Amino acid sequence: DTGVSQDPRHKITKRGQNVTFRCDPISEHNRLYWYRQTLGQGPEFLTYFQNEAQLEKSRLLSDRFSAERPKGSFSTLEIQRTEQGDSAMYLCASSLAGSNPSTDTQYFGPGTRLTVL
Amino acid sequence: KNEVEQSPQNLTAQEGEFITINCSYSVGISALHWLQQHPGGGIVSLFMLSSGKKKHGRLIATINIQEKHSSLHITASHPRDSAVYICAVIRLRETSGSRLTFGEGTQLTVNP
C-alpha cells in the first residue's frame, strides 16, 4: 500500500454512460497526476495538478474528459459519453514538490480498471 | 517512435538466473525511473537515477547518460520477481512537475 487510494477499483459501464473516478493522494503531497494504461502498454500522461490548479492536460484528454482537484486534496476524473476506446486502467499518482522536480518520487494508486461495453 | 524503448518485451527465466532489462531513450532527461507493476495494476518505484549505479538487495540499476541507456539487473532471480518492469524518464525542462514518460514495459516471468 503506497498510501494513494483510488475508487472504484473496477468499473464496467455501457457505451454512452458517464463515469467518475476518485483519487485520494498522500495527504501532504501537493502534486497529483493522472495516467492511462491500455493493455500491454506503458502508462500515458493525462493531466497534472499542482495543489488545486490543473497545470497541464495531454492531447489525449478530449473534451469528454474533465478532471478536478478541489481544495488541492482528492481529485476526480470524469469521462462523459464513454466509448469502447476509453477502456483502460486509469492510474493516479502523487508527489511532494521539492526544489528539484527531478527528485520527486511519484507514489501510484492501485488504479481503476474501466471496461466500456 | 517512442521516446522510451525497452527490450526485451517479454522475458522468461529459470529461478536463479541473472536477468537484464534494457532501456533506451531519445530525449534529454533529468532523471530515469525503474518501476515494478504487479498483476492488478499497482506500480512501485524501484530506483530513480540521474547518473551512475544504484543497488538495492538483488536489484541493480545503471545509467549511461552519454549513450542514453539504462539497464536493470536482477541477480539470483526468484519467482516472486515475476512482474512488469517499466522504465520511465523525466524530460529535461519538463513543465509538468515530475511528469513521467514511460516505456512499454518488460513482462518478466521467473519459473521455479
Key descriptive features of the protein:
heterodimer; A: 117 residues; mainly beta; seven-stranded mixed β-sheet; four-stranded antiparallel β-sheet; 11 strands; B: 112 residues; five-stranded antiparallel β-sheet; 0% helix; globular
Describe the structure.
The N and C termini of chain A lie far apart (30 Å). With 117 residues, chain A is mostly beta strands. In chain A, a hairpin with a 2-residue loop joins strand 5 and strand 6 (53-57). Chain A is globular and about 45 Å long. In chain A, the strands form two sheets. In chain A, strands 2, 4, 5, 6, 9, 10 and 11 form a seven-stranded mixed beta sheet that branches. Chain A has strands at residues 5-7, 10-13, 19-24, 31-37, 44-50, 53-57, 65-68, 75-79, 88-95, 107-108, 112-116. Chain B is mainly beta and 112 residues long. Chain B has strands spanning 4-7, 10-14, 19-25, 29-37, 43-49, 52-56, 59-64, 69-74, 83-91, 101-102, 106-111. In chain B, the strands form two sheets. In chain B, strands 2, 4, 5, 9, 10 and 11 form a six-stranded mixed beta sheet that branches. Chain B starts with a strand and ends with a strand. The model of chain B has no long low-confidence stretch (mean pLDDT 93). Chain A binds chain B through residues 2, 31, 33, 35, 37, 40-45, 48, 50, 55-56, 89, 91, 93, 95, 97, 101-111, 113, and chain B through 4, 30-31, 40-45, 48, 50, 86, 88, 90, 94-105.
Share of β-strand residues of chain A: over 45%
Give the oligomeric state of the chains in this entry, treating copies of one chain as homo and distinct chains as hetero: heterodimer
Q: Which structural class best describes the helix and strand composition of chain B?
A: mainly beta
Based on secondary structure, the structural category of chain A is: mainly beta
Instruction: Give the CA-based shape of chain A.
Output: globular
- Indicate the low-confidence ranges of chain B by residue numbers: none
What's the number of extended β-strand segments of chain B? 11
Distance between the termini of chain A: 30 Å
Radius of gyration of chain B: 14 Å
